[in-house]
Amino acid sequence: MTAALTTPAAPAAARVPRQWRWLARLHRPALICGGTLVLLTAAALVWLGGPLTDASAAAWKAYNACGFTPRCSYDQSAILVYKDVYNWTTFAVLTVPFLIAAWAGGALVGRETESGTARLAWTQGVSPARWLASRLVLPAVLAVAGTGLLAGLHHWAWAAGKDSIDTTKSWYDAATFHSNGTVPMALALAGLAAGALAGLLMRRAMAALAAAAVAVGVLWAGVHAVLPYLWPSVTRVSSLREGPMGPGLHVGEGVLTPEGRAAAPCLNSQVHGCRDTLADMGATAFYRDLHPVAHYWPLQLVASGILLAVAGLLTYAAFRVLRRSTGTARG
């Protein structure tokens, strides 16, 4: 009897892995579906960056060699297949953070708070804070691994064709930019935290699912809107005859006058009416503020840092809501 009374409880470090194993069994269907999606998309990206890129590059080389020849023989289907697979895989990479947020809000937290499973777990020796932590740590690792793999493969596949395929998207194309770097991983973590918070606040699986997905959309739109201003831009000045010039992510453009910068009423000084208008303004040149390709990674990292900060704030808010609703001061 004495031995039974003095047997120490299992340490917290030993209970956490059991929580993760139980969590994996509980959400096995979602993990299988998510893993299948990641593997299929990864396989498609490998196909895109390998055989499809080679075939499309060869087709474009043959097409460009034709010149103005009326009858030109080239593999048009290879070009179209590359384009379709690129668009679909890009869409798949961008969809992953939305799916993670919806799963976190609907099943990971929302369903358990709605059904009362969470409160039952809290009566079985698992504190509310540890319960929530177990639902964030392992999914966060899986989210980063999955989105990181897809984003890395997408960047590799895009880079494989950017110099040999004429229709390759530019680095600053919105969908390409957000699929090619660290933004998907940070957005996935923010979505996970948003789903957990929505599940704790709403305690309704479907409502939390929808709210989390909408939150990811709002975050993505917000980051995209402020993206041009996250890093100092450079200015390209060109003559009135040339018009605004400079490839990259555009921030703004206009004309230079003796009084300073002004909005450009027109962009083609070769047109008689435009030439007269610019002369009346005293315009001396066009300017364009932009981000060159050298700003790609600074923009990626700053945008990702903002999303990670938001993810941290959402996670903190989730623990505060949990603490307030359960009346626990510590986990």
Please specify the SSE layout and strand pairing.
Layout: H1 2-6, H2 12-26, H3 28-66, H4 76-115, H5 117-122, H6 128-161, H7 174-180, H8 183-202, H9 205-226, E1 234-238, E2 249-257, E3 260-262, H10 272-281, E4 285-291, H11 296-326
Antiparallel strand pairs: 1-4, 2-3, 2-4
Helix pairs in contact: 2-6, 3-4, 3-6, 4-6, 4-7, 4-8, 4-9, 6-8, 8-9, 8-11
Structural summary, described in words:
With 331 residues, this protein is an alpha+beta fold. It folds into two domains: 15-230 and 296-326, no CATH class; 234-294, no CATH class. Helix content is 69%, strand content 7%. The protein has eleven helices and four strands, in the order αααααααααβββαβα. It has helices spanning 2-6, 12-26, 28-66, 76-115, 117-122, 128-161, 174-180, 183-202, 205-226, 272-281, 296-326; strands at residues 234-238, 249-257, 260-262, 285-291. A four-stranded antiparallel sheet has the order 1-4-2-3, with no helix packed on it. A hairpin with a 2-residue loop joins β2 and β3. α2 crosses α6, α3 (28-66) runs parallel beside α6 (128-161) and α4 (76-115) runs antiparallel to α6 (128-161). It is flat and about 80 Å long. 37% of the residues are buried. Mean pLDDT is 87; it is low at 1-10.
